[in-house]
Amino acid sequence: MDQAPGSPDRPQAAHGLPGCYRHPGRETGISCTRCERPICPECMVSASVGFQCPECVRTGSGTGHAPSASRPRTIAGAELTSGDPRLVTKILLGVNAAVFLAVLADQTLADRLNLIGLAFDPRIREVVGVADGEWYRLLTSVFLHQQVWHIAFNMLGLWWLGGPLEAALGRVRYLALYLLSGLAGSALVYLLAEPNQGALGASGAIWGLLGATAVLLRRLEYDLRPVIALLALNLLFTFTMPGISWEAHVGGLVGGTVIAFGMVHAPRGRRTLVQAGVCAVVLLVSVAAIVLRTQSLLT
């Protein structure tokens, strides 16, 4: 059971680091700069110096420090919103599940939405693919799954990684991270894979969240060894197991890492401008790769 906000106790987590005073099971190395209670990424509110807990922000009281800005913000500068902290994550889960059920009902849907560079479809006797003008495949494939194990694995990753990132970045920034990571993964698949090789799944976006998690934990001065071990293990599977599109994983990882770095390290005075600029750079690089590949396939 969670301790009530305002408790002076400092709950101790299992591995020695203190636990968040609002979520005792979550280890953290960050404390509120006003009341000095330990706080996790979901509870952190960006202040002029360091981070504050929601209780201190709401009451404007503390240990003699001046009140912070009237509108509390996350570590990435997003205004704190009321309501479900995992709203966007749940919507993404719902969209993936809905597309999966639609594919079960109509098996031809997967062929119309998956990522194909350029290929001749003998069933409809037409050329199909991104190079033939079907640009939507670059994003629809990110929400497309055919096997139960595939969607289950990706959605577990989305749930575990997405919630803390959504709380730390804010809904709009988090959604941009997810979509641009997925697009970056699709762009690298399109650029490097055989044009008639189909690809689908949310793996590129999930790897973007994994890279963003590493960046966030480093920014908060957490122990990165568990995340590095997870990354290394997943990279091993990516490059040794057959049937896995390594291009989607690498593209999503690089895109998500770059975006997250820009979001959590942007200078306070130009935060929104820098964050939008980093997202624009990832988008432009992805578009450039797509245009380059399209030209090479059509010439």
TrEMBL record:
Q: Name one GO molecular function term.
A: serine-type endopeptidase activity
Give the way it sits in the membrane: Multi-pass membrane protein
Q: What's the protein here called?
A: Rhomboid family intramembrane serine protease
Location in the cell: Membrane
A Gene Ontology biological process in which this protein takes part is: proteolysis
Record family assignment: Belongs to the peptidase S54 family.
Q: InterPro entries this protein is in? A: Peptidase_S54_rhomboid_dom, Rhomboid-like_sf, Rhomboid_protease_S54
